[in-house]
Amino acid sequence: MITPEQELLVREALTTKVAAAVPGSGFEVMPSPVLFGGIEEYWAVVAPKVTQKLIEKSPVKLITITFLGFADDEEQGSDHSPLTRFLYGFNVFRQYSYLRTDQTETPDAFDKKMLVSHTEFVAAVLNLKAAFQGKRNLAELTGDDFAIKRTISLQQPDEIEDREECLYVSGVFGHQVRLDATAELMLKEC
User: Fold this and answer.
1) What is the spatial distance between Cα 189 and Cα 172, in angstroms, rounded to a whole number?
2) Fewest CB atoms within 10 A around its CB: which of 2, 14, 142, 168?
3) pTM here?
4) Around Cβ 168, how many Cβ atoms within 10 Å?
5) pLDDT tens-digit profile of 118-156?
6) Residues with Cβ < 8 Å from 57, sequence gap 6 or more?
7) Buried residues in 32-59 as b, exposed as e (16+ CB within 10 A)
8) How many CB atoms lie within 10 A of CB 29?
9) What mean pLDDT is reported for the chain?
């Protein structure tokens, strides 16, 4: 049986793989869901030295990884070490503002900002899709506990939501989608 400690190592490996898929994009990747009471609390944890002015100008870009469940494969492995499929949800969120807070900003300039926001979000989703396409060895999971450690292609169970409140940062709205990732794992026989 896979222990909670081994599952945490899997989640940490997935976090590393997700972060590598969106380098330099500003997305914060968290290996478990953390609920924030608002944007100030989020930034206090993510970047404790950030100023209020920077908070107002910096959008929340967050990917959280949640363990959703598992299923043993009846055909592969043994009773002591079955092939187990662990299901994880990647919640991808990118904040935006549909209100022009500075009325000196032209509508064209505002539209360009909105396009950049949406493009960054779509790029993150597509980069994650590419990183998890097909069956891939989960090389980020180090150690010799597992005979099989791989991921299979991401699934998107629902459409992308716009104008959606972030599941993990209260009062923050933007683009959001859940992608489902499957990790196939089998322990080495004892």
Assistant:
1) 47
2) 142
3) 0.89
4) 19
5) 899 999 999 999 999 999 999 999 988 999 999 999 999
6) none
7) eeeebeebeebbeebeeeeeeeeeeebb
8) 20
9) 89
